[in-house]
Amino acid sequence: MHVKTVLILLVLALATIFALVCVLLTRGRAPSTCQHQSPAQEDTDGGQSLVFADLTPEEMAQVVRYLQGNLGAQLVDASRAKPSDSCIASVELQVPAKAEVLRFLDGGGARPPREALAVLYFGNQPDPNVTEYVVGPLPTPAYHRDVTVQKYGGKVPYHRRPVTGKEYLDINALIQQELRKAPRFLAACCQSDGTDLAILTTAPRGFKSGDRSTWFVLFHNVAGTGYYLSPVGLEVLVDHRDLHVSRWQLRQVFYNGQYFASTQDLEDAFGDDLLEVVRIEKPQAEAVLGSMRPRQPPGSLGPLQYEPQGPRYHVRDNHVTFRGWSIAFGMNPNSGPRLFDIRYHGERIVYELSLQEALALYGSNCPGGMSTRYLDGSFGIGRFAYELVRGLDCPYTATYVDRHYLAESETPKTNQNSLCIFEHDAALPLRRHFSDSQSLYYGGLQKNMLVIRTISTLINYDYIWDFMFHSSGAVEVRVHATGYISSSFLHGRGTDYGNRVGPHTLGTMHLHHIHYKVDLDVDGQLNSLETQDMEYELVKDPWSMQNTIERPYLRRKRLETENEAAFPLKGPMPRYISFASPNPNKWGHPRSYRIQITSFAGEHLPASSPMERSISWGRYQLAVTRRKEEEPTSTSIYNQNDPWTPTVAFADFINNETITNEDLVAWISVGFLHIPHAEDVPNTVTVGNGVGFFLRPYNYFNEDPSVDSPDSVYFSVEQDAGACRVNSLACLAPAATCAPRLPPFRYRGFLNL
């Protein structure tokens, strides 16, 4: 054998041995830790988004101190206040007027003064009422002004105030006092003395303005499980209208289809054997209907989403940037998540995108269920957005943000990690094509998006609020419902109102309606509303005149007035509805953004209902109105307890004003009818229970803006698709062979309960 050949073989053998040794030495060794890189798009906002920032705990505390020292009223901490006391109910950000903000953001004007909105309950005065004050400037308040009449056209009557935690405690004490009058009945029906029963409120509270009478539904309460699935058949009506707690009264009692004037009458009927008692065993924790405890030991780990080179988005204060997107985010303690100044590649698309209200309306043959119309903003959609569970509510490596609020207390509280931000791989191409004719190639782009998420727990239901931003320039808004169904005691013809889901449990039918405000500014503030849809026309074939063909054609229309742009919930609506700029794109079409709604809402409350005007936003799947500073929200927290004389009636916003080349707002309703079934136990799942809408560019650009994404993939038959320089997917093996840096799991979500 030639000496040169021997040397070559020897070198190859040594190289092989070296490679094998390296493999053996590294086998079993943990992969290296992922090295994070700074996002390509850093935050260049310069702090401008702070004009929308929620109040800090320090600012809230300053407002409380100012009000205590400057109103000349004796204020009691709301956590202890009786109805006959005066107290600070809440303090939140007063969002500056849009014109002031735009002068600051776009025109180089002065930063608007930072102000707070304080809501006070004045029960300790001759004319009890609710008053709202704007307090400023922050951080050192020096003035306050009463804005109640300016906002609502008059004083807010005291009976419209939301029920406080202290009021609920006093009601519970009254109910317990009354239950002690029926000991034999409670022992027979429920194996209880009443003290271990959970009490659930309903709303609204009566039949006319001024009423404050609430049905409360009683359930077996088993620690560690959802009591909502264990009704005992007992419901009580409490009149708590009087300012003096000692004058409150239990007005009626309901049990298993029968009504009684008092618990004493109920006990007497039981003693006289005039009552059909359904004896319910007290459920045990391991067998209770609503238990969410795992039934199997943990298995192997599922897929984990992580960023091998660190997040590609950037968060500073209340501002996030991602691949051309720029968003200011916040949380209203009542109405929940809200976004401002949404821009794509520097151009503002949306000035405000905010949740307005969540309605849950029930049916039942029990009084509590049949009278329930929860307006969740009155309870606090943002306030009850608790800490998110890392790795389940959001990806483990998401960015988590604290939210602060001041409600029913003089001390600010913090819901830690209650909003999350992350990039999500949808495991679906955003676009792709495999070319199998003429030239042979593959091109595509993965569907990655930025997600801003928070989750509110409103008594039994959990709402997952998502705002998603795509590289195509589209904004997606989605809500999923999960948590526990509410239930009634099964009796009589109960299945006319739902399905039986337990031995004595009726899963009551209900509808969820969600309302959003979308203040689009498409290529400027002045927009018009344009619709497009298809029709067929019967024409003769140009090449064969004796034959005809049904040819689809495009029907375009510009809507001129608010009345034209109010689309009833179940009425026809054009498939394409767009906010159009007066300016054209390269191809001569108005630069536009299209509203595309995904919803399967239940029926709206009949117009004949005396409380329908309080939720009149639910009449419409979409309504477009001229933007007005005096119409900031579609509802009010005061509508829940006086829906018969609503403080804000959305129907009044629609008054046939022109909407051509104006600053416009889209008000969007989405929802679904929920008829509970066996699979809703123990919990309603998110699958199939998600609704929302898209804001999609429609001739806004000259082409799909995602073509500029650095994630794009393209290779042809002539290229080596396995080469990293040709195909970025071929780079994954060396780039992503690392372990994510996972923070330790901690949870402190029970602290503020």
From TrEMBL:
Q: Any idea which UniProt keywords this protein has?
A: Copper, Metal-binding, Oxidoreductase, Signal, TPQ
UniProt modified residues of type 2',4',5'-topaquinone: 461
Q: Where is the active site?
A: 376 (proton acceptor), 461 (schiff-base intermediate with substrate)
GO CC terms in record = plasma membrane
Cofactors needed by this protein, per the record, are: Cu cation
Report if keyword Metal-binding is assigned: yes
Which Gene Ontology molecular function entries are recorded, alphabetically? copper ion binding; primary methylamine oxidase activity; quinone binding
Question: What family does the database annotate?
Answer: Belongs to the copper/topaquinone oxidase family.
The protein in question is named Amine oxidase
Species for this entry: Bucorvus abyssinicus
Q: Which gene encodes it?
A: Aoc3_1
